[in-house]
Amino acid sequence: MGLFDLFRRQKASSPDPGSADADLDEPRCDHYSFAHYALRIVAHENPWQCLAVLASPEAQTFLSDLLNSVAGHCKERGKDSNLRASDIIIHRVRAGGRPCAVLEMPLPRAIAEAFYMAVVLLVDPSSESPESEKGAIRYFTLEKGVVLDGPPRTVLCEWTAEGSHVNFGDGPAPRVHAFVQAIEGLLAK
């Protein structure tokens, strides 16, 4: 099934504009803040610990704590926060042979909300000296893109440690395997 087939199927079953699942004009505070700020900052500040906890039985507790911080941020701005740790699925994978956690978010409903985020630890397990890449990560997002009278699209992006948002353009279909393949292509460059 291609990207367009996936979105057509989704659109065919899309709710009416007044329902709770309809597309929104702006990103939800909790959805956007968690994907673009909270998890990214923690991952860049503590790469090993972040990946270790995401791979552990404590992952849901970690996500709950992080989401509580996000809820406080949103409340200060007068915004709702309904995202729960149980809404997020963690996929423990390898990207280009490197440890990687892909977090699957609830379906995006606004431009710039993320389908997925990936934390990739830049350690080559086959290397004799992983110290050269100690602690570095890359943080990727697959976001809902702008659609102007055309088919739905995704956008492949990366957040740097300095806080820059890099847009690589059209992304793959919103599937974990396709996202990881796209990341591997970027890691190989």
Describe this structure in words.
The protein is α+β, with helices and mostly antiparallel strands and 189 residues long. A hairpin with a 5-residue loop joins β5 and β6. α2 crosses α4. The protein has one domain. It has a six-stranded antiparallel sheet, sandwiched between helices. It contains five helices and six strands; from the N terminus they run ααααββββββα. The protein is globular.
Name a few traits of the molecule:
189 residues, 5 helices, single chain, alpha+beta, six-stranded antiparallel β-sheet
Oligomer: single chain
- Main-sheet strand order equals 1-2-3-4-5-6
Low-confidence runs (pLDDT<50, min 5 residues)? 1-19
What fraction of residues sit in β-strands?
15-25%
How far do the termini sit from each other?
28 Å
Cα-atom radius of gyration: 17 Å
SS element count, helices: 5
Main β sheet profile:
6 strands, antiparallel
Q: SSE string, helix = H, strand = E?
A: HHHHEEEEEEH
Tell me how many strands there are: 6
